[in-house]
Specification:
Number of strands: 10
Number of helices: 8
Structural class: alpha+beta
Order of helices and strands: HEEHHEEHEHEEHHEEHE
Shape: globular
Strand order of the largest sheet: 5-3-4-2-1-6-7-9-8-10
Length: about 250
């Protein structure tokens, strides 16, 4: 299943980063596979413990690491890069991207570097990615949200994630749907996300939404199989560890 492959890939990437840099304080806190509404798919690893000078010194090695990571998960990238934290010298993530036709033109038009805090590793035609089911997962959820809301709701991005703690899940960045609409259709949404999760080897223990700060607009919908430590945290906080989070399902 892709989830176990993602867990293994995260761990292997972290191990290779630590060996490369000699840094015991270097971590891959989370690794994701994603699909965007435009048709792009890709792989991301969020990195802690590396600075801009590390990216410059290990430029070629980091390129190989993220591209190997991506290809091992069935995504053959046409662009790969390092993204720095905004306004800082800390590395935020390594990313490899199989660009859709529209984004290929956009990247090419700006010389392959659409953001100033991006360090480009390579850009070419890429290959034909093998793992494209994630595009179906994204569009399937978007279709459901549009039926529920009766308006053009959007799933901007759909991710499958694996975290350093052992949690795995699926999460969607959404626009155009509100908390009361989700609550009225909670059972249908939980059933849909559970079915999607099971396709990639996840049995969710919690399904929840997050909100745009200070509003009733839903920002994200997630289904997660919690690790033992995170499950304990949810239970201690009576399954609401954040004020902008609304639980739709929690396995007792």
């Amino acid at each position: 299943m892709i989830t176990q492959e993602l867990l293994d890939a995260r761990s292997k990437l972290e191990e290779r980063l630590q060996k490369l840099t000699g840094g015991a304080g270097v971590f891959a806190s989370e690794s994701d596979i994603f699909a965007m509404s435009c048709g792009c798919i890709g792989a991301i690893s969020y990195i802690q413990g590396l600075q801009l000078e590390d990216v410059e010194v290990y430029h070629d090695e980091l390129k190989n690491l993220i591209e190997d990571f991506s290809r091992n998960l069935g995504i053959f990238p046409s662009v790969s890069y390092a993204q720095m934290k905004p306004g800082k010298f800390d590395l935020e993530r390594l990313q490899a991207h199989d660009l859709c036709d529209s984004c290929k033109k956009e990247y090419a038009g700006c010389g392959g570097k659409p953001w100033p805090d991006m360090i480009l590793f390579k850009m070419d035609e890429g290959g034909e990615s093998a793992f494209t089911d994630i595009l179906r997962f994204r569009s399937g959820l978007e279709e459901l949200l549009r039926v529920i809301s009766k308006r053009p709701a959007y799933v901007m991005q759909f991710n499958i994630f694996a975290r350093i703690c052992g949690c795995v899940g699926v999460t969607a960045v959404v626009r155009g749907i509100f908390g009361d609409e989700i609550q009225r259709n909670a059972e249908e949404i939980v059933e849909h996300l559970t079915r999607t999760s099971e396709e990639v080897g996840i049995e969710p223990t919690v399904v929840y939404t997050t909100f745009v700060h200070g509003t009733e607009a839903v920002a994200g919908i997630s289904a997660q199989a919690t690790c033992k430590a995170c499950r304990t945290t949810y239970e201690e906080y009576e399954v609401i560890p954040r004020p902008d989070l609304d639980i739709l399902y929690f396995e007792k």
